[in-house]
TrEMBL record:
<dbReference type="InterPro" id="IPR000600">
    <property type="entry name" value="ROK"/>
</dbReference>
<comment type="similarity">
    <text>Belongs to the ROK (NagC/XylR) family.</text>
</comment>
<dbReference type="InterPro" id="IPR043129">
    <property type="entry name" value="ATPase_NBD"/>
</dbReference>
<protein>
    <submittedName>
        <fullName>ROK family protein</fullName>
    </submittedName>
</protein>
<dbReference type="Pfam" id="PF00480">
    <property type="entry name" value="ROK"/>
</dbReference>
Amino acid sequence: MNKYSIAFDVGGLFIKSAVLDSEGEIVPDSYAIFPSKSKETKEGIIEHLVFIIKQQTNGILDRNFEITGVGYAFPGPFDYEEGISYIKGIDKFEEIYGLNLRELVMNRLKQESSFYSKMSSEFQIVFDNDASLFALGEYAYGEAKGYNKAIFLTIGTGAGSAFMENGMLIKERQDVPESGWIYNQPFKQSIIDDYISKRGVLKLADEIDLHTTDQEVATLAVMARNEDVKAKMLFQMFGNNIGAALNPFIATFKPDAIILGGQITKSKDLFIAGVYETLENKTISIVCSAETSVSTFKGVARLLQQSNKRMG
């Protein structure tokens, strides 16, 4: 019997998904993007999540298989251990606030006879945030493999982070911020999230009077690569902010490497020199993930493996 798991990266607009085999590898042609339907009713959201699970299961061409689990990279605030969403006030997933998503989805799946027959005896539904799953995937299969201690930073709409030692996520320890999250830690005039994010890049552009029609980081990156002086300066300054923001965490956690992921790290070549400029520890390795989404999916497979071991 061949074993598969299904991974989901949940956003406010879209849900990305992939099927993974027992080795944690993504099954060819299983990557798919669905609308998130995050503004639906409670029933609508649950129905949709179950529909996507069934769709992905139906795409498995293997004749003899079972599903060992489903894992979600879910945005916060969220109680990942219990599977309860606390998202509110942002017009997304409002209707499932305070509900146990694990129980609701599990109960619906058990009513689907075609899926139920494919559930393995150890079947589980697990949740974590995307930065933690990115870290697990990178450590097991990607750039973080050779490092005992690493800080993971995903830069996109905000600053996601995770701290890892010997393959285990460190969330509650004196040398890391609470939950391993740096986004809400004080930095300059406010918090890190306001600086190490798309918002942070656009704020810098505004400060140096550099404007694009579409307000996209990718457009600014093209300008910088085309030798626009202001755009090059912008990414240098952004790198400076990343280095300065990381310094206190590097000092306490003492990692061997910083692993970067997220949409904005595609412009790493433009800001990396700026990072090293303000970094107090110049010898630390800074490595960029090849594909953040792929690592996040593989992290789901890893989380299910760890979870199954604990239960077993």
